[in-house]
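Question (not urgent): is this output format expected?
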Amino acid sequence: MKIRMQFILIGLGLMLIQNGNAQYSKYNGISHEGEFGFGIGAAHYFGDLNTRIGLNRPKPAITAFYRKQFGNYVAARIGATFAQLGYSDVYSKNQFQKTRNLSFNTNIWELTVQGDFNFFQFNPIDPDYIFTPYVTIGAGIFGYDPYAYLEGKKYFLRPLGTEGQGTSAYPDRKKYSTTAIVFPIGAGFKYSITPEMNLGFEILYRVTSTDYLDDVSTTYAGANLFSSDMVAQRLQDRSYEFGTPIGVAGRQRGFSGQKDHYVTAIISLSFNLSSYKCPSAK
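Got this back:
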């Protein structure tokens, strides 16, 4: 009986809090349901060619998203992002990497589902709650296909098997997929510049499931393996451009113990979706 009474008192307390919040709200009839928007910014790659997390070669990124609000603090969203990534050993301060002389570029097509948590109550209809920082985490998939240039001509690297992928000499090295899983985690803020429109900024770091975003992962396969394909031979080891080639079979080419990552910094503009009903007091 005593326990039941405690539950009743807790329930009454929550009802009073909810009614009290509703009573002091100046916009009782309008509820913020979510938003859709677009963003533009920069992307950067981290991996076997950028081991020191340099931010010296950003490339463009654009995004579109829809966010569904659940109460004042929690939201879920689906987002699509296009970005360009690339790097080169010429930017490294490490002498081995400079001599290795590898480079790549790739386009990224990404689709993610994320959960957002606002630090402050956010309701663009109410001028008292028009700003909040937030954190976000999620999962998704992305497509990529690294390529490099040789004498001004573009070559996609995956079909060349630059580390012996898909050859009988290295049966354990399968050709990598051009689709991988991505786990975004980040933070941002949004500010309602009008009841209909928000301005936002977000930094989103992606941990990926692939180590071949840059076509570099493990050891050299050796020039002899590519004797019938001169393009593959010249792209799998480009140290010859600085003198004696270093790409001996079995010598380290990349580090397979860590996956490749990338990050975006995006400025966004979003448009609010509202409904005329009593908002949640959560």
